[in-house]
Each structure stands twice: as structure tokens, then as C-alpha cells.
Design goal:
The protein is α+β, with helices and mostly antiparallel strands. The chain has two domains: 74 residues; 148 residues, Immunoglobulin-like. Helix content is 19%, strand content 20%. The protein has a seven-stranded antiparallel sheet. Bound molecules: copper (II) ion. Its main location: other.
């Protein structure tokens, strides 16, 4: 019958004698075709060879996965530094008013005042003309000022001096992990019932009103987005004197 005839034996790779010069031990290697092997012996040897190969493969896969995880974690740590609390803010106030746009009814302004301690700043936001569609609007400090043509899409991304990026949404319960310019992410979006205005005041610990500091916002812009993230309106911060 077929299982006992040579053509049905599975040929196994020859023992790696040729690798002797690379440091392998020149010993007899178990193969399924070793002479004098009984069928049972050959089956057992074959089983152990396959098992050893599988174990080696599993170890290699585990090492690769471990390496990938380590690289991934170190990349995340490098690109996701928490924002430090700003403790040396000056006694200056900045103000940004949205420039009127034909494509939206949204209007408003954000005033950023100093706190007596110099720790953090006090943000006062007031928006009106909010569409009656019960959808939230979001607002941010963007990394570039609005150019003369008023194009809100020329203001770049959010103020993000610590390289957090946009990939993960801001967690309102961990504002130090958010982009510094993500005001609505850290403090809540704009929302109001029909025909009502939206007003809020809060402390932000991570904005700096000191020129030259990484989290300085005084020469940047305020941008309000629709629910689909399109840019509705924008305006530049100026110092109030
Ligand atoms: Cu924005």
C-alpha cells in the first residue's frame, strides 16, 4: 500500500552539514528518512522536528511583536507630551473678534484675561448667531493669524506646542493632554437653544500670554468650526490696552 512505499515518504531537508563552517555542529540530524528507522520512530521524529520549528517560529513572532510594541510606545511618548501649567503669565489682556462672514450668521469674541496669581489665564467667550440646528460648534486657537484676505483656512492647525496632534480626540477630563489651542475640547463646545447666545468663562492653565513662550497665543487667531469641521469664522488676537 501507498503509506509503506518510498514514493509516499515525505522528503525532508538534508541535514545542514554544509553549514559546518558557520558554526553549526556537524552531527547526525534526525530526519524522517534516517536509515533503520521504524515507521513509528520516523513519525515521532517528524513530530518533534515540526514542533521545534513551530516553537522557533512562535518565538520569532513574539520577539517581532514585542519590538513593534516598544517602538510604538516610544513614538507615542515622544509625540504626546502633556502641557505644563503656565505659572508666570503677565498682566495683559488679549481679545479676538470673529470677522463677519457672508456664509455664516455666527459672530462672537473671546477675551483672555490675566489672573492675579499669574497662574493660567481667564477665558471669557461669547458667541451669537448660532444656527438653530441643535448642533454643537467648536472653537480653537490656531497656529497662524488670519491673513488680510480673511481666509480662515489659511490659519493652519491648532496651537499645539507640545506635539500632541489631532489623532486622538481631546479628553475634557485630562485637559493637560489636549492641544493647547483646543479650547472647546478642553472646556466644552458652543451650544445654545434657538435664538439664544452662548457665554462661558473658565480658567485655562496652559495658555501663555508671554511673548516667546511655547504656549503664547497673543499673535495667533480664533477659529469657529461647524459640526462638520468646516471653518465658519475667524479673527486675530490683539492686545487690549
Ligand atoms: Cu480649529
Amino acid at each position: 500500500m501507498c503509506p509503506l512505499t518510498p514514493p509516499c515518504m515525505v522528503p525532508y531537508k538534508a541535514a545542514p552539514e554544509s553549514r559546518g563552517k558557520r558554526g553549526y555542529r556537524k552531527t547526525k540530524t534526525l530526519t524522517a528518512n534516517s536509515p533503520n528507522s521504524s515507521i513509528v520512530d520516523r513519525d515521532r521524529r517528524s513530530f518533534f522536528i515540526q514542533k521545534a520549528k513551530l516553537l522557533a517560529k512562535t518565538k520569532m513572532l513574539f520577539k517581532s511583536a514585542l519590538l513593534a510594541t516598544t517602538l510604538c510606545l516610544s513614538a507615542t511618548a515622544a509625540a504626546n507630551t502633556n502641557a505644563p501649567v503656565v505659572t508666570d503669565n503677565d498682566d495683559v489682556t488679549y481679545y479676538a473678534q470673529l470677522q463677519p462672514k457672508d456664509n455664516t450668521t455666527v459672530r462672537g469674541a473671546v477675551t483672555i484675561l490675566p489672573k492675579p496669581s499669574g497662574v493660567g489665564v481667564l477665558v471669557s467667550a461669547h458667541f451669537w448667531g448660532i444656527p438653530d440646528n441643535e448642533q454643537q460648534l467648536v472653537y480653537h486657537i490656531h497656529q497662524k493669524p488670519v491673513p488680510k484676505d480673511g481666509n480662515c483656512y489659511s490659519t493652519g492647525a491648532h496651537l499645539d506646542p507640545y506635539g500632541r496632534g489631532d489623532a486622538t480626540p481631546c479628553d475634557i477630563n485630562a485637559p493637560q493632554t489636549c492641544q493647547v489651542g483646543d479650547l472647546s475640547g478642553k472646556h466644552g463646545p458652543i451650544w445654545a437653544p434657538d435664538n439664544e447666545e452662548f457665554t462661558t468663562t473658565y480658567t485655562d492653565w496652559f495658555l501663555s500670554n508671554v511673548e516667546g513662550e511655547p504656549a503664547f497665543f497673543g499673535n495667533l487667531s480664533l477659529v469657529v468650526h461647524a459640526a462638520d469641521n468646516s471653518r465658519l469664522a475667524c479673527g486675530n488676537f490683539v492686545e487690549l490696552k
